[in-house]
């Protein structure tokens, strides 16, 4: 700490410009800033973070070079790939300039980059800076991703429909159908991208937004295979609880509505920042919620229904049927919602941030994974931590109504809720004094100080 007082070290963070990635990176920045580091966030113009929400950070906007991207149609994987091609030279130029201007008092200790912003590692190496990877998905997802590479090389994938329910050896409880495939790109392109994103090249350490007590054996397996140290220091949102990096405006009016609902009665429904659905699926969810007779808070994100904007897409007669029993917003303050006493269940796409936030709220889940790591998370939620139930592939109102009643009313749901509370306590222990995440964070800081 003596050294830190004399020479505050600067860390350059490179988030991937999507909500589910920006959140954990900026939370990490908040945590490391509280430990005495100066923080610079290098970011794209697209989905750029709001500097006024982070007055303690410096921001380094990278000149925009991207052709019109297609993120609204959900072609995110191709977009991220394009980022890697287009931003390397810009980042090199901008970072070199910062280094020229820096004094001894403000030395850059390292670059911390989102696992998919691989160009950052190459630039750090060229500028002789150490680099550290932040993995924003679960450890189980990482193993599943490396397995895709192996199974493809061994000829097991693509697999026939008849194998989709088969368990994958060494990857319990994942079945072939749970592998984190992309809905946006071909298997060949996915394999190429995964070999790039899972390769740490010259990086010195890996930070993981997960918790040892959730993924102990998976983390141990990864550490055995990995020649650099890994630091599971999550859940980042819980340690950096005050920071918000929402790209959309949060509609806090739903909190006042929640205040009027009884304890544990509300099912919160949200499918994150990138998943989308069609009108038929929207109608099935709407009538499933209406028919369940349970109070609900539903996020219908603009652009999430192919080709349309909010409220007018809801089925005819739906609003009249639900009356005051349901509340619909475009974007919610999700962490506050999941911490609210009235919320007793979360109907979710199972993005990793949502999964961690639900676990930290002690809230059991109805899992409706859409793509990629969401399938892995859903399987862990329902089969390993047993704090949720998973819906079938096709959204059907009857199945949704039944799932809500199982979770919110029946004995099975009460038991899941109890297990969710126990899981929450375990996670709380990990960030407290002597807990695994706290210890890992201290070790991480030591390594960064030694650079
Ligand atoms: C994407 C992928 O879908 C996901 O599988 C991957 O793990 C991360 O990137 P996203 O769809 O954004 O994530 O889901 P998630 O990881 O759950 O992150 C969404 C974030 O937005 C959460 O931190 C959540 O709190 C926040 N959110 C969501 C809000 O603040 N308000 C909302 O109304 C909905």
Question: How would you sum up this structure, described in words?
Answer:
With 451 residues, this protein is α/β, with parallel strands linked by helices. The protein has two domains: 262 residues, 3-Layer(aba) Sandwich (Rossmann fold), CATH 3.40.50.2000; 176 residues, Glycogen Phosphorylase B (Rossmann fold). Helix content is 44%, strand content 13%. It is built from 18 helices and 13 strands. A seven-stranded parallel β-sheet has the order 3-2-1-4-5-6-7, with helices on both faces. It has a six-stranded parallel β-sheet with strand order 10-9-8-11-12-13, with helices on both faces. β11, α14 and β12 form a beta-alpha-beta unit. α4 packs across α5, α11 packs across α16 and α16 packs across α17. The chain is globular. It starts with a helix and ends with a helix. The N terminus is likely disordered. Bound molecules: uridine-5'-diphosphate-xylopyranose. The site of uridine-5'-diphosphate-xylopyranose has 25 residues, from α2, α13, α14 and α15. Its EC number is 2.4.1.-. It is an enzyme of class 2 (transferase). Belongs to the UDP-glycosyltransferase family. GO terms for molecular function: quercetin 3-O-glucosyltransferase activity; quercetin 7-O-glucosyltransferase activity. InterPro entries: UDP_glucos_trans, UDP_glycos_trans_CS.
């Amino acid at each position: 700490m003596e050294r830190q007082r004399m020479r505050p070290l600067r860390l350059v963070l490179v988030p991937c410009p999507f909500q589910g990635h920006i959140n954990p990176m900026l939370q990490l920045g908040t945590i490391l800033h509280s430990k005495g580091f100066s923080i610079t966030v290098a970011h794209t113009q697209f989905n750029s973070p709001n500097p006024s929400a982070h007055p303690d950070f410096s921001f380094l906007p990278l000149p925009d070079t991207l052709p019109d991207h297609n993120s609204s149609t959900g072609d995110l994987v191709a977009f991220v790939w394009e980022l890697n091609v287009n931003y390397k030279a810009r980042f090199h130029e901008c970072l070199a300039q910062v280094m020229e201007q820096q004094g001894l008092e403000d030395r850059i200790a390292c670059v911390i980059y989102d696992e998919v912003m691989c160009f950052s590692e190459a630039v750090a190496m060229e500028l002789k800076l150490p680099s550290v990877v932040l993995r924003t998905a679960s450890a189980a997802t990482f193993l599943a991703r490396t397995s895709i590479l192996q199974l493809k090389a061994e000829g097991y994938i693509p697999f026939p429909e008849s194998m989709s329910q088969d368990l994958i050896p060494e990857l319990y409880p994942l079945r072939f159908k749970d592998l984190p495939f992309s809905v946006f790109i071909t298997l060949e392109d996915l394999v190429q991208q995964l070999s790039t994103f899972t390769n740490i090249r010259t990086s010195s350490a890996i930070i993981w937004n997960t918790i040892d007590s959730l993924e102990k054996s998976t983390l141990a397996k990864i550490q055995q295979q990995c020649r650099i140290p890994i630091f599971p220091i999550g859940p980042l949102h819980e340690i950096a609880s005050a920071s918000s990096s929402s790209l959309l405006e949060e509609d806090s009016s739903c909190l006042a509505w929640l205040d009027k609902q009884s304890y544990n009665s509300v099912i919160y429904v949200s499918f994150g920042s990138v998943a989308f659905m069609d009108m038929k699926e929207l109608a099935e969810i709407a009538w499933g919620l209406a028919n369940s007779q349970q109070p609900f808070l539903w996020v219908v994100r603009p652009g999430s229904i192919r080709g349309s904007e909010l409220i007018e897409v809801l089925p005819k007669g739906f609003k009249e049927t639900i009356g005051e029993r349901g509340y619909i917003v475009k974007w919610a303050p999700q962490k506050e919602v999941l911490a609210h006493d009235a919320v007793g269940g979360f109907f979710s796409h199972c993005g990793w941030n949502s999964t961690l936030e639900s676990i930290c709220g002690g809230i059991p889940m109805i899992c409706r994974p859409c793509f990629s790591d969401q399938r892995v998370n859903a399987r862990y939620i329902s089969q390993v931590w047993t704090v949720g139930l998973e819906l079938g592939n096709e959204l059907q109102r009857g199945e949704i109504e039944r799932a809500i009643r199982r979770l919110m009313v029946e004995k099975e749901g009460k038991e899941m809720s109890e297990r969710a509370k126990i899981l929450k306590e375990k996670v709380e222990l990990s960030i407290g004094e002597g807990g695994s995440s706290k210890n890992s964070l201290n070790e991480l800081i030591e390594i960064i100080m030694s650079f």
